[in-house]
Amino acid sequence: MLSDGSDATFILQNILDQTGLAYICQTYERFSGNDSWEMVLQLSKEPSTRLLKQVVRCYLRLSDNPRT
Fold this sequence. Notes:
With 68 residues, this protein is mainly alpha-helical. The chain is built from five helices and no strands. The chain has one domain (6-62). InterPro entries: ARM-like, CNOT9.
């Protein structure tokens, strides 16, 4: 994983298809287990346009599920 977390965020973004989105949103533990919040905190310390773009895409995709 890169030190800025962009690889992990990219992978999360790619698994959030319909099946992946349904799976991660089934329980709070699965949803809260992703590291996207840590990426946001890291962005406040070390700004990265690339990482911000990927994190926003993940949050947008997660918002497609009414359980999130």
